[in-house]
Amino acid sequence: MNRPGDETNRHAEVSLPVVRASELAQYSFCRRAWWLTTIKQIPVQSEQTLRRGRQAHARHEMQVRAAAGWRYGGFWLIGAGGLFFIIALISVWLGGG
Description:
The protein has helices spanning about 5-10, 20-30, 30-40, 45-95. About 75% of the residues lie in helices and about 0% in strands.
């Protein structure tokens, strides 16, 4: 019969890998870079490669922010158009148009 203490002891024997703060930072910055260096164990080629990667990430971030801004603006335009349409319908319905 299993006692609660037996399960706790059995789980305590399992060795979990140590995750370092630098690995978390690398993963949060670029999952692909973390995967290449940690899982595939491919070393970083040069500082220039890292610099190009950072520049690519910066460009991508700007594109994502711009797209989000255009999307936000589009929602506002759709909302304004809908509001004007409703006002026009009410105006016609009340005989003002």
